[in-house]
């Protein structure tokens, strides 16, 4: 029963295509930490972040980087990355990442 409710919510929010309505910015930022950490050192530098967000126009990548770098050490670690500033949710730039988690939960519940 819970699985059906979660699936219904996902379907209502994201529709048949599994995508929220487009807001004119076709370039999405990557959801995976490894897509940014090019040198594999466990931290995302500003240069790595700007390179991974090339073409993203919804927010200045440097401003976004500063908001993700909670402790201001000029490096985003996995903890900072996975616990993004809640105010970023209101901006909508991470919606596609949230959608993937929603579908993963729906699929996990139906399969598992």
Automatic annotation (TrEMBL):
The keyword Transmembrane helix does not apply. Residues 33-59 form the EF-hand domain. One of its GO terms (molecular function) is calcium ion binding. Keywords: Calcium, Signal. SUPFAM superfamilies: EF-hand. InterPro entries: EF-hand-dom_pair, EF_Hand_1_Ca_BS, EF_hand_dom. It comes from the Eukaryota. Transmembrane segments: none annotated. It holds the Pfam family EF-hand_5. Residues 1-18 form the signal peptide. This is EF-hand domain-containing protein.
């Amino acid at each position: 029963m819970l699985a059906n409710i979660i699936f219904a919510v996902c379907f209502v929010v994201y529709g048949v295509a599994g995508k929220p309505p487009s807001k004119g910015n076709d370039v999405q930022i990557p959801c995976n930490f490894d897509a940014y950490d090019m040198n594999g050192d466990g931290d995302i530098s500003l240069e790595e972040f700007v390179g991974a967000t090339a073409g993203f126009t919804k927010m200045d990548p440097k401003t976004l980087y500063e908001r993700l770098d909670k402790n201001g050490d000029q490096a985003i670690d996995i903890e900072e990355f996975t616990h993004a500033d809640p105010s970023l949710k209101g901006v909508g730039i991470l919606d596609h990442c949230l959608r993937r988690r929603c579908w993963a939960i729906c699929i996990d519940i139906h399969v598992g």
